[in-house]
User: Fold these one by one.
Assistant:
Number 1:
Amino acid sequence: MKQKKGLIIGLIVVLVLLAIGIFAPENLKNTLASFIAQDLRIALPLALAAAGLVFGERSGVLNLGAEGLMLTGALFTWIGTAMFAGNPWLGVLVGMFASLLMALLFAFLVITLRSNQTVIGVSINILALGLTSTIYRVVQSMDMKIFGFPNIADILAKIPVLGDMLTNMTNIGPQLALVDIPRIGPFLNIIFAQNIMIYIGIIIIIFLNFVLFKTDLGLKVRAVGEYPKACDTMGINVYKIRYGSVLFSGLLTGLAGGLLVLDIKTFVENVTAGKGFIAIAAVIFGKYTPIGALGASLVFGGAQAVQYLIQAIGLKAPSDLMNMIPYVVTIVALAGFIGKTHVPAASTKPYVKE
Amino acid sequence: MVPILEMKNIVKQFPGVLANDNVNLIVEKGSIHALMGENGAGKSTLMNILYGLYAPSSGQILFSGEEIRIASPKHAIEHGIGMVHQHFMLIPALSVIENVILGKPDNKKVLELKNDAEAFVALGARYNMKIDPYALVSDLTVGQQQRVEILKAIYRGAELLILDEPTAVLTPQEVTELFKIMNQLKEEGKTIIFISHKLKEVFAICDTITVLRLGRSQSSVPSASTNSEELAEMMVGRKCFLDVDKGPYKPGEIVLKMEHVFTKGTHGALSDISLEIKKGEILGIAGVDGNGQDALIDSITGLCKVSDGKIFIKGNDMTNSSPRDVLEQKVSHIPADRHKRGMVSTMSVKENMILISYYKKPFSSGGFLNWKYIEKNAEEIVESFNVKTPGIEEVIGKLSGGNQQKVVLGRELSRDPDFVIAAHPVRGLDIGATEYVHETLVAERDRGGAVLLVSTELDEVLTLADRIAVMYEGRIMGILDKEDYDVTRIGMMMAGQNK
Ligand SMILES: Nc1ncnc2c1ncn2[C@@H]1O[C@H](COP(=O)(O)OP(=O)(O)OP(=O)(O)O)[C@@H](O)[C@H]1O
Ligand SMILES: [Mg+2]
């Protein structure tokens, strides 16, 4: 029922956008399209991290160290990309692996040793900030060459036969053929001409939603976060499920961190700047579902994209005030939302087997 | 014929507690076998060992004549052992069918909920149980949840079904339903181990009875060749008086007076409640669970808001007072749900003993707790209420259910109350303790206290109460004096019909 409501909202948004794309005046269309493109670009790392964290939270582990994991993933993606001659795919794998190791440390402390999740989560953030800043200072002088992920049009153009139908060749490289659709073409082109990772990310998130709600594994994850003792009596290994969920969320937060770096093509200290926490907020705002988290991330990402929009329109506002927008939106969204959503009953409670 | 189950010389040592001390248990296939014994006798522990939740310190388990090792519930389920726990093992946030198939080893990677739901509904139909497989467990009544638990075990192929105090939380009608199901399972050749403190039930449904006492197996007898008195003596080790002696009924001045009280709420809200309780009297509230009993107690104790009407305690207007102000009127409250409202499970016995009085002299002075006095007081309550615990430092959550209840009772009744509110005070208690609680409540009354007794056990209300008020959908259907007690009439009133 509730899932349907989200779907309907999504559908309405798409329809409204299409209508604008067809009927609105040219400059409004362009502004809006680049706003959406920005939103997607900003939201996707958040959404991927949040979708991973959904699994951890659903299994009963609140990972406040998400910010730290993301930061670790960011630094090592940067280093990895440089190591592999600028290859973003291999770089991101290195980042995910580093974040995985951090998640393993977190999992060991809170699941096996049953330490307080809040304390350990915060400590992981401090550890990661210190660690990444130190390593960064050591390696920053190295010559770093970073390429981002290829654009969807570049990939499509390489497909034999179909490629020619889906893309046009221009002097700045291939372009999506949908730009030729009358009226709405250019509008759609700005939105859809994204790097390939955005497409992959959305597919991953939809797939994770399916896993969580339609598979045996997903059922176990959801159950363990509600009533671990009952799961034990049903022959489920609570520790195994929790380890798996936390490690998996580590992989995705690492990937999210990597995407940040590949987006701006460089690493700076504390490059995540609270995005890990916003991802946690997206988990809650998205009602602990991967697709919900994507929706929430689009809202939060939109709050940030508004800054660019305001600049584009030419309004003058203090930039510090502008920078606050996403954080304010996050707080307001959560404050209006908390208590209205079902939090996994065993969230943050360690499980003791008799 | 080889018995389906043989447990030999089972020993289970917890830190400081020898819960099972060389227990032997033989269960025949196709029988209903009762396991009885005092609170803390080790019944749940023995069954948890059988179900693989606890590892025994030593001992042997033979299943259909073969020795097996049950290291985890997974093994137990594989061997066809199913268990319905004293506290249900269902996940409220999931649907019925999700609970049923959770962790089943033969589940497909991508669940086929629809197929499972169909099979589950068909299984339910066989036992005359109608349960919506897609309903959330949190929306089910306690009785329905229990049926889900039983079906879940059978759905997973249980041949031997353990029911740990299944009737403690059921209404009389639900108990009758449960017994029908149990008999049908027995006819199909399944075996049931049934734990209960109620002699009547055990005689009604069981073939054989095994009694545990202080962690040892006393004896096993066919239920046809024994009687209530003998059984009670086996459990407690002394003669029990299954009836209570009450002094003459001499009501005094009014202690509680409710005038046209209303509360707001979705279900079980009060509507136009007027009643009074006098010194030296027990007023019993009869009714099916969920008909406003909780709101009645909450409105008196200040735990919920009264939207209209007045409540007086000893002549003082206490309408919408804070809970502490109510308690200060020498009111004691034995709550229905001890886990939620009676105790803090992760705190020690002695800490739980002062939850109400910690701020008062002599428990504390100048903001500092007086541990010497607190400990002495706790020792005394443990002693006089016969709480079975390794010590007052023990975490209360580790005590057996009945002993937790005794701690709550001890705390409330040792406060020298003028007015006692007791909601299901013997839920989960053994017969010795039940006898004790009943005697204590009657003694309270005999020495001039007022008692409000809420219970879904009609028998309990009939024997103890001087007057009975029957509640239905938040209203009082009528208040009967002792001369007018009539089970059929009360039954009708409980169902919402008057006359
Ligand atoms: N996990 C545990 N740790 C320590 N002691 C325990 C634990 N579980 C049970 N005990 C102790 O073992 C003894 C037996 O408890 P058990 O729960 O088996 O009693 P029971 O016969 O089921 O009682 P009741 O009728 O009250 O349910 C009790 O003294 C209890 O305090
Ligand atoms: Mg028990």
Number 2:
Amino acid sequence: MATTFSPISVFAARLMPKEQRFVSGHRACQGCAEALAVRMVHSILGRNTIVASATGCMEIISSSYPDTAWTVPWIHVAFENAAAVASGVEAGLSILMKKGKIPQRKIQVVGMGGDGGTADIGLQSLSGAMERGHDMIYICYDNEAYMNTGIQRSSSTPYGASTTTSPAGSLSIGQHTWKKNIPMIMAGHKIPYVATASPSYPFDLAQKVKKAAKVKGPAYLHIYACCPTGWRMKPDMAVQIGRLAVETGVFPLYEIEQGVLRITHKTPELRPLKEYTKHQGRFRHLDDATLEEIERRVLDEYRKLERREGLAL
Amino acid sequence: MERRIGMEASIAMAEAVGLCDADVVSAYPITPQTHIVEHLSELVANGELDANFVPVESEHSAMSVCCGSSAAGARTYTATSSQGLALMHEILFIAPALRLPIVMAVANRSLSGPISIWNDHSDIMAERDIGWIQVFVENAQEAIDLTIWSFRIAEDKRVSLPTIVNFDGFILSHMIEPVLMPDREQVQDFLPPFEPLQRLDIDNPVSMGPVGIPDVYTEAKYVQHKLLTDAYGPIVETFGELEKHFGRKYRPVETYRADDADVLLLTMGALGETAMTAVDERRKRGQKVGLIKLRLFRPFPYKDLLNAIGDKPVLGVMDRAVSFGGPVGPVASEVKAALFSARKHPLVPEFIVGLGGRDTSIADFHSIFDDLFEAAERDTTPDPRFVGLRE
Ligand SMILES: Cc1ncc(C[n+]2csc(CCOP(=O)(O)OP(=O)(O)O)c2C)c(N)n1
Ligand code: SF4
Ligand SMILES: [Mg+2]
């Protein structure tokens, strides 16, 4: 099945900003789609942005003193608290503006973290920040493991993937739990905007980032971030793998606006899962029976998502 | 004009924060800190304090929010105690490294286990090395004065470091005492508006909290140590300013009837008040005991302490926490470290008192004084004693 863009996205190509806020020279691995996604997000968000980053790959590779890849104000405090720090920045800016101590203008506060910093150790602080209704965007860059510390499993690691703490072995298929669904947990917070996105679909991603920025109150973006190093695959395949993740139904693209779900990239017929897994060393040990079992569940989850389209969640 | 008024110490402290016009208050409730944050929420809810109150889901997030808001350039306050302070632990180290002048009250309380809501200094002694300025107060008036002062010293550009006001849970936090509450104008005269060293500003973008490779980490830590040590000068200077504005005198180390004393006892925090009463009683009996009160815990005032001790033969140290399996009393171990470089030093008997809300009575003080005189007579240091321990 050929990939299709929604008509509005095609025209958006020329509207994609050229100026970068997350600039080259950083230390990410070759072919890192997490760095690619960060670059895209911030070229869209532009200048009037303040970023609070969690510890993790993106923090480490972008801020080795005295260098920085950030041309917008950026702060890193710790691993599990990026959402809290961002909410503090927002609380600080808004009261200073109210009291006339700094000029009144729109400044987009962004919290960012990896899947570990978001789905595991940082989930509580994220939940708090979203529930309190701060006017901020939180972005999870999901590379499906703790990459910065050496490819350990997270609750966002997919079923069957071999990582250094969920290694495949004679008694283990690797990760034996299903990926935690953080976007739906965020939707449960009744925040105005939740979306999944992927740098393999830049225009879809651009629209979602813009919507998230426009929304008054908290917005949550869950961005698929292929990590060739941790997934044990060729670095020049990151963008293609991102496409296959969507086309096989592994990572569906959707948004939940004011509680209503819409799949933004429809894939009525999913591609065989193997097309996705065969390129990645982390799945190499899986036998056909296991792959089929995973494929059935992926399909099942995808159909469930389709059934929820247009419904108020 | 100041108002003379009877007020609970916690409420007085919150009122002081209001007078300082804090921009952001972020906190999570824990006994015995609750009255401070409840009162601050009220001040905000009634429009008496124009601040953002951020009711976080944990103390870890409270300190994280404080880091964010302070980095954004907002005057930032929080308060906690015990388990809450322990939960902040990780972030406490980061605030001074980022030079964020957050002010925090710690209503000192014991640590679990067993769980105990009552007063001692276990919580703050576990946070000795976090790199914050730390003072201890003895009564509600000091709580007001030193809260106002904390914003001034923390935000002083030569310093720009976070500051903790330690005040004993319940035995001070919940006491209603007569105080002189300054007015807004007086506070404004003393406390200039907050101008951060650097802040998250879209017109002057900076990266805060970068990775410190081995090439720079040592230097970063050295600078941090030097900054906190050198804060001593501005601390004494601003104590002087505080006296000029409010007429009350504060010193890094304070003494009571110490000059002509034969034996000395060192305390920290609210027990100092009872200690003074005990000293007076003893003096009436013709026995010369004196008191040293450690007001400034960080930076540790080595010189002032040595001056206060002089050539006295015995200095008892009261500790309200235990360094398990180690030097027993954390304050005593600091004091001994301070004395080690002196040519001559006194015997330093150690007393562990008032753990987990155990009352420290005048009689306890007398038993301690007895020990001090005995130590002087025998010229030997007794083993550390858990005062009032039931066998
Ligand atoms: C409290 C704490 N625990 C553990 C760590 C070690 N640590 C740093 S980054 C990281 C994993 C990051 O994983 P993720 O959030 O998924 O980001 P990624 O590096 O994969 O982009 C871990 C475990 C830490 N810095 N702090
Ligand atoms: S380990 Fe993965 S996520 Fe981290 S920089 Fe390398 S490719 Fe990117
Ligand atoms: Mg990750």
Number 3:
Amino acid sequence: MGKLYDELCKDYRFKEGMKTCINCGTCTAICPAAEFYRYDPRKILDTVQRKDDEDILALLKSETIWYCGECMSCLTRCPRKNGAGLVIMALRNLSIKLGYFTESEKGRQIYPLTKALTGNVLNLGYCVHPSTYRYEDHPESGPVFEWVLEHKEDVYKRLGANYAGEGPGILRAIPQKDLDELKAIFDETGGTERIESVEKFSEKKAEEMGMSLDEYKAYTFTHCSRGHFNNEQETL
Amino acid sequence: MIYQGKQKIWSDYQKDIPDDHWFYVRSCIRQSFFPGSEKFFMKIVRDDLGKDIYETEHHTTCGGIAYHCDTIPQETAMTIVARQFALMTEAGYENLVASCITSFGNYCETIETWREFPELEARVREHLWKACRREFKVPKYVAHASDLVYKFRNEIAARAKFRLVDHETGEPLRIVEHIGCHYSKMFPHKGVGGAEYPCVLSGMAEAWGGEVIDYPERRHCCGFGFRQYLVRANRGYSLSNTHKKFESMEPYHPDCIITNCPGCPFFLDRWQYVISEMEGKTYGQDGHGIPVLTYEELAALVLGYDPWDMGLQIHQVGLEPLLDKMGVPYDPSKKYLGLNEKEIMKPGLPTVLKCC
Ligand code: SF4
Ligand code: SF4
């Protein structure tokens, strides 16, 4: 048993999700990620249960652990009550903690995700909010949402929201005192440390790739090499 | 009543949902994309049904999307959840109702993990005390907002002004329902009907006169996938999964799709627009899409509220074909008015998809 395996064992998602895998492949059969990506949760669980640190290290640096959508469809169907999605969460957690996430294209996306989501949570008290949802980043939201975003105040208030207002209600401004509590929770529970270490590892990788951190953020958010999907010839 | 066969199995999966006194926690996604749904949920439950449902301005995101995008540690997510529980406890409530499936899953995961690993609950209690000086009781009951609408579906049916029936032919409308993965795939016993017979939405649709379509990919994920949608480079995953569902439901000619999670209706609506732009293909009648609704919107329509008050105009797929079938009146000239009927510009039109 290796050190990385020991680290995984400390994660409650791993304790919940990794019992004994009988390699039946049910998780892969039901998995929406496996259908399109070069992804096989059965193989990942089998690799992890071999407890070989070299193989686990390869996983932590791999593209494959980032393909899962955390839908948890696998959890319902596994005959041994494993949760491939939960094991993936533990693997991703360790990959981020140890900085291996910057070794893969999909792993590097943790930087723009962290910036956007923890930024929204700490600054606004929301994970997603119209004030930071940019149409340029979301052309799929359609002309109707471009219109909504251009007329935020009017449209949200017309629909009964207390947009950026005081007191309770839809899209209210969350009081600063409550945002301060969220920040204190992040400081206390390792959330802030996580943000700082993602930033540190990403800075290093950006430098290696010859980019400024802003360029790196834009690039990792938009760039998709060929070779991730089942129907592509290329390999990564 | 004596239940037999499938009905008997269904009865085993029923949840005993408390009748009253709820602490409400909002959804970031529902507020951003379907704000009218939260407004009408409160209106229906509080004003029409006379229930006690409480909200405080001090609650925040549950952190669920940040958590499932792997950007915050598990203990951070759990302590945010614990803070919501503390606000509930301080307000004197024991039943928590969440407006979001991701939140519902997050609350259930937190409580179930604590049940199995009490030392983790103790640690989170300590975190919350140190960070916020707050204490909490674990909710006696956690519901998703649709559980309440499901529970009161027959009361809503008794007040219905419109039914899910073609008002010209009298035929029931064909309804596709999508319950969202985190409602019952993680903790099947927490959802009405479990993972095998989820009936939270089909129960509503049937109570209001519709006929539920069973199609091959009924339980397939909508394709959100958290990072798989939020990162632009990954959105092919999200689109491909939703496309798979449309192709599977198309032969059954659904009149509408109803959804449980606040994210799913966004994807089921917007990817129809994207597929129409990419491939010229539409899934509804005569170049329209298949209308997609939240369950709150559906309940509000059945109760006779104005479609533009609930925000049906901020869907990309036009809802008019459904309104016409149900016989719901609407004023097209008021569709895109702003606050106090102020004239604001109208949205642009898609190239292919007919929107009204
Ligand atoms: S379904 Fe469960 S037992 Fe079967 S391969 Fe997947 S994890 Fe292993
Ligand atoms: S949680 Fe991940 S591994 Fe499991 S079915 Fe969903 S996408 Fe596949």
Number 4:
Amino acid sequence: MGKKGFGQSEPPTRQAKKFLLAFMRCMAETQEDRDRVHNFFKSHQAQLNESLLEALPLVVQKLTPEREEIAPFLLTFGNSIQQFPLGDRMLNLELSIAAYQECLKIYTRENFPQDWAGVQNNLGIAYHARIKGERAENLERSIGFHQQALQVYTREHFPEKWARAQNNLGNAYGDRIEGERSENLERSIVAYQQAMQVYTREHFLKKWAMAQNNLGNTYRERIKGDRGENLEQSIVAYQQALQVYTREHFPEKWAGSQNNLGIAYRERIKGERAENLERAIAAYQQALQVRTREHFPQDWAMTQNNLGTAYGERIKGERGENLEQAIAFYQQAAKVFSRDAFPQQWAKNQSDLAETLMKRASLTNKIDDLDSAITLLKASLEVAASGTPYFIDSQYRLGNAFSRYYEYTQNPADLQQALQAYKIALEAIDPEHYDRKQIWQALPTTQSILGSRLVRDGRWQEGLQLLLNSINQLSRGDDFYAHANALFQTGKAHEFLSDWDNARLYYRDALRLYEHLKDELGIAQSRAGLGGVLVSQGYLEKGLAELAKAQEIYQHLQKPNKAAELDRLYQLAKRAWEQQLSNEVYV
Amino acid sequence: MTTADDIFDRSANNIRRLGLKEIPFTESPIALNSETLRCVFTGREGELEKAFNQFQSRDRRRILVYGRIGIGKSAFLLEVLSVLRRKRPKMLTAYISLPSDLDLATTALIAVAREMPDDDWALRQLHQMGIPTTKPMKERTTEASATMGFGAKLSEKDLPMTKAQYATVSLETLLERASEKYPEGVVIAIDDLDKQNPSVVRQMMHDAQGILKGRAWFLLTGHPTGITGDLLTSERGLFDLQLELKELDRETTYRMLINYLNTARIDNECKDLQDPRSVLPFVPEAARRFCQVSLGKPRLFNRLGNTVLSRAAELQEQLITQTVLEECLKVAAPTLLQRAALNVQEERVRILLQQRGSLSDDTITMADLEPLGFRSFVDIVPILERLEEADLAHQLDRGDAKVFAPIPLPPADDEVLPE
Ligand SMILES: Nc1ncnc2c1ncn2[C@@H]1O[C@H](COP(=O)(O)OP(=O)(O)O)[C@@H](O)[C@H]1O
Ligand SMILES: [Mg+2]
């Protein structure tokens, strides 16, 4: 930080100019050797700062006579700073973008159409990775740049560059936030398929493999079509890529595709789940042989994160141990994925860790883990770009965490928060998404729990409204159990309000549905409720019959407590009934 | 050559051939003026007595009138009000049908303010809520029919009304102002509470406890499956009297028929139960049969009466004998069905009801529900109630189950039986 007023600090432009000239000299000497450029940045790391970013445009202007000569250097600077793994990543990306933008002042579309298109392509990549600014907006710009590039790079005249731009466009659409996600993924697939028309295996072995790998990613996330089938397609694509990306010749790419293959196996629907998870773990471990923390910190962290998820879901082995392992992996990943340098990755990793803590909480019944999970998720959501899959996941998880938390606290405010989170997730998720149903059903189920709770608390208007809403939704869904339960809860709420007529209606509906589902416990509950209501209404004989049946089922289900609980009511009603009978005799 | 005028004359002649000036039956009591209502209103002696007993007290009372749709709640309310107007000239009576989206305080405020056209403050209240306060309203003094006309207008529910800002306080103020001119007090009758969502009404009643226990008399109506079911219990103590209106018995229905016919018969006033002329143009056996099919339900009675007389006129009959009646009743079922304008789903439920003979929460099965696209009885209750509203179904009087059955009407000649 420049201390104003103390000593003689150099004006930023002069410093920047010196730096740029040094960089140009280095370039000239090293002929753009990657490692040497890397070393140059490493030794000048202190100068890669905000003032350089500010000064860059001014300096370029000042170099007027050499302007045209400076353009290639700017381009190289932009490219290499983008790939430089050390320092402040956000700043590095801004520097890269600034350099490209300066470059474009020289490479205009009229005078240097091809160079112009090349810079557009690079800007597209930089904006895709950009950390600063609104993520959705950056991705829109990235798409825009790639489309610009495609205006010059036509298939006819520049088939290879055209294919590259298509591939990059595919990447950007794959991550796009605006628009329907399902549509964006389709566009991404189309773009990759276009690219592969040029990148054939025969002529562009490496590029073909890259496109296969990318296609594998998109199929893995695809929303349209059959999910199980898409995942198979994804696995095939990765395996194709791995035929070219051997460990021997392309260790990095090999590791990348192994990592991706691991993800696809983890998500796989076909085949045996336990086995798929083992395969996923094996693939990740392969990847880590190349992806060391020292050489590829970011990739290493990514695979650590993936291992965490696989262990969290692992079926083989001891569950408690697997969860501990998972937590350890996430903690490793967090060492690289810091909030500042990799906000999106950090957010995902936090959220994944939270999910595992929730799993541990259900294993150990410890509320502390839920507590931490909620804290982690909230922090993660502060950073996660809204509308991204991670964001949606985290909202859903937050909903789950809060509704589980409620089981301990019995504080309706927690359910309210759960509802809120589910609602946000539901609004953000693509209507066709394969996970949507899960969230869609969580919402009314939580509504019905909250509803019955509010009714018990005397907030009937709100409570009943929630219950009725949830029934309304559940009656159109296909979760029969949740529907039956909501009907039962509504019966209970009405019973609580002494609205016998409605209580009876809902208990009977719950009973009918539980019978249809052959759910013994549900049947017993509903009969017990119905019996109680009929007794309250004075239909003693009918009520007694229901209570007796409920008792019988409870006995059968080995729930003597429940049966005994009912017995008190039963005996009371029976006495009243006998009384009634004897009165009738005497009349 | 027949002109439209000729056709009109012929149509009037057809009615006249039956010895009637017009068809006296109406669907809603709002359509009647208070004099006519007084003439046709029949029975309910016990209920009226219980209600009037409440008015012999100095304390303000709250009365709930409940019963199924079409059973005569509105008519009862209007009858009570018109008696009070005659017997208690120093009492202000206000009738209103509960508009949607309004709370009880605002509703009561509107009802009372409309009855005080000479009071500037009251007019301003209405004005602020966007309710027209035109000259005719001001001119209206004690004319009862105008009051009812207003009730009808409000129930149209398309007036853009805004809530009064401090409805509870404003109502208090208004009642205070009214007490100067009406020392015998203010009666506020709020009709059709059951047309609102039950949970909304439940909350509404809860919120309005202060007002209901305040300085006015209240008469409210609802139907038992809506609010009343749990008002009777959870809001115990809110009402001083809960009156359930049930089907009229056969004899009362017969007297009701006499009363209606008397208001329309040309030169032939006869109310003597024993005298066969009292039911003309019906012959006594046909009149009895007509009362039987009306099931003691006043609205069904009015709807069927309308259909039967129109059909008899069309057939250019002079007298409604048993055979003519049967002929006329054949069009009743199709007429009701046509007027109901059911949608596909409602029609499917109707057919199921017809096939089963009755539908109830107790006996309906998943196999009945699933083809309709439902999984619970509560889902089809609104549809069954819609059929009830159209007199295509009615609820049986069972406390341990909600049972709907078709209204038994003679089949039409060409009715195609559902498969
Ligand atoms: N006791 C009665 N005597 C004569 N007509 C009646 C009587 N009760 C109801 N009606 C008539 O029957 C029809 C339906 O009654 P209404 O009061 O609208 O029923 P509800 O308000 O219960 O739905 C109206 O035309 C009304 O005038
Ligand atoms: Mg009415």
